[in-house]
Design goal:
The protein has about 200 residues and is mainly beta. It is built from 2 helices and 8 strands, in the order ααββββββββ.
């Protein structure tokens, strides 16, 4: 009987102290959650910027190349780990090269592409392809002429979300612009480009 009364007294004393009551009520000490939890979905609209380098080829073995950068916008829809979407972008480029008296440049280009990818929490691996267009300019002996080329683009990339709204990407894109004839300067050329670029997106 005395042991029972003594045990009850010890339990009551323990519960009467703030630390003892807290330990029994809550168990292990509270742990601060990590500052960022991976997003549950890639579904939604986004806008962003990018910068990279363009390696090109055109007539007369010209290789119009240079830095390129611009903006992009798109929308993703996620089903389980499967992600589909669409994206458009517009780029300004310093790609140019010369052959004899000819100078060819590709001052701007853009694309409208579909995207398909596989999500692993905050990492998205994707492929992309669709329509491309771009401007060409030829200079020859003081004459110049501009044209708009059309064609197609395809590529792949990886995107990593580092907060619930912000993500960064690395992407390779191949752009094939079909032939146009610059009658004023007597040159017919197409243009093919490989573009390596890095981007930053804000996801709504």
């Amino acid at each position: 009987m005395k042991k029972t009364i003594l045990s009850a007294g010890l339990i009551a004393a323990l519960l009467a102290t703030p630390t003892g009551a807290a330990d029994l009520r809550y168990g292990a000490p509270y742990q601060q959650p990590p500052p960022y939890a991976a997003p549950q979905t890639w579904t939604g609209a986004y806008v962003g910027v990018n910068v990279g380098y363009q390696f090109g080829s055109a007539a007369f073995n010209m290789n119009p190349s240079g830095f390129a950068g611009g903006v992009q916008a798109g929308y993703n829809y996620q089903i389980n780990q499967f992600v589909i979407g669409a994206e458009t972008d517009f780029q300004f480029s310093g790609a140019e090269d010369t052959f004899a008296a000819y100078k060819f440049s590709n001052p701007w280009f853009g694309t409208l592409r579909g995207r398909i990818g596989w999500a692993m929490n905050n990492v998205l691996i994707y492929g992309t392809g669709g329509f491309a267009y771009g401007g060409g300019e030829v200079e020859w002996l003081g004459w110049s002429q501009t044209k708009t080329h059309t064609g197609w683009a395809a590529g792949a990339g990886i995107e990593v979300a580092f907060t619930p709204n912000w993500s960064a990407r690395a992407e390779y894109l191949y752009v094939d612009l079909t032939k146009e004839t610059y009658t004023m300067v007597g040159l017919t050329t197409d243009m093919e480009s490989s573009i390596v670029r890095f981007g930053l997106n804000y996801r709504f």
